[in-house]
Specification:
- This is CarD family transcriptional regulator.
- It holds the Pfam family cNMP_binding.
- This protein is about 50% helix and about 20% strand.
- With about 190 residues, it is α+β, with helices and mostly antiparallel strands.
- The chain folds into two domains: about 140 residues, Jelly Rolls; about 45 residues, no CATH class.
- β4 and β5 form a beta hairpin.
- It is globular and about 55 Å long.
- About 25% of the residues are buried.
Length: about 190
C-alpha cells in the first residue's frame, strides 16, 4: 500500500488525514495467473493499482485475440471507459502472472473526491497516467515499426517481458508469431 502513496507523492504531498481516508477505501486482492478480471459485457467497477503482476487487455476474436495493452507493476489498471460510463466493457482484462491489486470501487472513489482535499488530484493523476499510456500506444502504432515496438517493450520491461507468451507480444505489436520470430532472430 505504501507504493501507492509514494506513487502519488511524486506529484503532490498527501496529508496523513487524507492518506488514512484514501487508504481505508483500498481493497487488497490477489489473483492467480490467467484470471479474467473483466470480460466483454461486464461493467468495470474498480480502479486498481498493480502492486505486483502483469495484465493484458484484449478483444477476443475467433481466430486470434487482439492484444492492445500490457500493464505492469506500480501502474493503474482499469477498463476505464466502462468504469467512467458504467456501460459494458468491449474488452477483456486478464492476469498473465500471479497479481496483487489494490482496488477502489467507483463509489469509494467518488467519496474520496468529495471528502478529501487531495481527492481530485489523486483522481486526475490516475486518469492522466491511463491517458498517457493510451496515447503512447496509439503513437507507437502510427509512428514505429513492429521491430521498434518490440524493442521498446523489451527495453521498458526486460525482466517482465519474459513472462508474456510470444503470441500475445506478436498480437500487441501487430504481427504474426512467425514474423515476431524473424524479428527476434534478426536482433539477437
Amino acid at each position: 500500500m505504501e507504493q501507492i502513496r509514494k506513487y502519488f507523492e511524486k506529484a503532490v504531498k498527501l496529508t496523513d488525514k487524507d492518506w488514512q481516508f484514501f487508504s481505508s477505501k483500498l481493497i487488497k486482492q490477489e489473483f492467480p495467473k490467467n484470471h479474467h478480471l473483466l470480460t466483454v459485457g461486464q461493467t468495470e467497477n474498480y480502479l486498481s493499482f498493480i502492486e505486483t503482476g502483469i495484465m493484458r487487455f484484449y478483444i477476443p476474436k475467433e481466430e486470434n485475440d487482439l492484444t492492445f495493452a500490457f500493464v505492469f507493476d506500480h501502474n493503474f489498471v482499469s477498463g476505464y471507459n466502462s468504469f467512467l460510463t458504467k456501460t459494458p466493457s468491449i474488452c477483456n482484462i486478464e492476469t498473465l502472472t500471479k497479481t496483487t491489486l489494490w482496488r477502489l470501487t467507483y463509489n469509494d472513489l467518488q467519496n474520496i473526491y468529495g471528502e478529501t482535499e487531495i481527492g481530485n488530484v489523486i483522481g486526475r493523476k490516475a486518469s492522466e497516467d491511463l491517458f498517457l499510456n493510451k496515447s503512447k500506444r496509439e503513437l507507437s502504432l502510427l509512428n514505429e515499426t513492429a521491430e521498434q515496438r518490440y524493442l521498446n517493450l523489451f527495453t521498458e520491461q526486460p525482466q517482465l517481458i519474459k513472462e508474456i507468451p510470444l503470441k500475445y507480444i506478436a498480437s500487441y505489436i501487430g504481427i504474426t508469431p512467425q514474423a515476431l520470430s524473424r524479428i527476434r532472430k534478426r536482433i539477437s
